[in-house]
Amino acid sequence: MGRKILLLLIILTSFIISSCSENKNNNSFIGITVYRTDDPFANSLKSNIEKFISGRAKYIVNDSQNNQTTQNSQVDNYISKGSKVLVINLVDTQAAQDIVDKAKKSDIPIILFNKAPDLSVMNSYDKVWYVGTLSEEAVNLQGKIITDSWKSNPSWDKNGDGKIQCVILEGEPGHADTKIRTENLISFIENSGIELEILDKKTAMWNRDRAKTIVDSWMSNHNNEDSDTKIEYIFSNNDEMALGALKSVQGFGYNKGESDKFIPIVGIDAIDETIKEIEKGNIVGTVLNDSVSQAKAVSDLALNLFKGETSNPILGTAWTLDNTKSVRVHYKPITIELPDTVNK
Ligand code: BGC
Ligand code: CA
């Protein structure tokens, strides 16, 4: 009798063990998080990643709703459910090390995308990769749109002092794109021989409505009859904020097509709405931040890692890794009125 029970127990235990490990394999998946889906650029990355992965691997995707604590528990949950690859758009780049440590502890490969981590994080684990862009490239292209358009439109110098009185809408603090897109842009323009007077710069957190509120107050302070330092150019770290700026200046009678009152605005991303405004002549230009290619790179690497290709995740793809284990997708300038040379 005792032997029978023992035998039954052994059979039962081995059944449970085998079905557990089978479960883990069958359910293995790619665990994806996006820092917030109400950011149109991040949402475009998300939907393109889903498009490229769908039908080729199981995946789970979560919106971290701009909350790092939420994202941490999403990652913990992926790990405990047996995720084979982690694909993470950080909420806060300062949390990169914690997230990578979690992956490392469980020996799971991880791809970070869109929010560039510090190099020390990339060096802390052999199975972490990054997919993004080189922010400097966006600056050079946006800078050229600004300097060329300024030179070919002398009437934009409202007070005729030869300098650009500008304001700058900045993205989220701590984001590599914000820092570089602001600081390097200022030096790019100054190095081109154009003097800048920065009337103000503020973060609108990549967000359209916040940008509108900020520009509303700038416009009331500067672009009135009494002020001799009128805003002559609005530089925006991204398109969402450029669109908020457009809405604001339109409220003050500028950039409406039919009126001759105009304040040049320039963005980065090339989202559809901005392209339409460029076509109408209401926004001067933008720079294509290619979310489709970035999503394709993320997906190609993730699918390779999913297959176990952890020693060479770019195998069989068109991507290359730089010396920081990062794929960098190129930016492209988008304007309509500028001379041909700008687009080359
Ligand atoms: C984009 C922004 C976006 C941000 C999110 C940047 O690369 O230009 O539009 O809000 O990424 O992290
Ligand atoms: Ca001026």
From TrEMBL:
The record ties this protein, via CDD domains, to:
PBP1_GGBP (cd01539)
Pfam families in UniProt: Peripla_BP_4
Which PROSITE patterns does the annotation name? Answer: PROKAR_LIPOPROTEIN
Output the superkingdom of the source species: Bacteria
Entry's InterPro entries?
Answer: Bact_Solute-Bind_Prot2, MglB-like_PBP1, Peripla_BP_I, SBP_2_dom
Which keywords does UniProt give here? Calcium, Metal-binding, Periplasm, Signal, Sugar transport, Transport
Q: Does the keyword Calcium apply?
A: yes
Q: What is its main location?
A: other
What Gene3D superfamilies does the record tag this protein with?
3.40.50.2300
Please state where this protein is localized.
Answer: Cell envelope
Annotated family: Belongs to the bacterial solute-binding protein 2 family.
The UniProt entry, under PANTHER family, shows: D-GALACTOSE_METHYL-GALACTOSIDE BINDING PERIPLASMIC PROTEIN MGLB (PTHR30036:SF2), D-XYLOSE-BINDING PERIPLASMIC PROTEIN (PTHR30036)
Record text on subunit structure and interactions? The ABC transporter complex is composed of one ATP-binding protein (MglA), two transmembrane proteins (MglC) and a solute-binding protein (MglB).
Identification of the protein by name: D-galactose/methyl-galactoside binding periplasmic protein MglB
Which species is the source of this protein? Brachyspira innocens
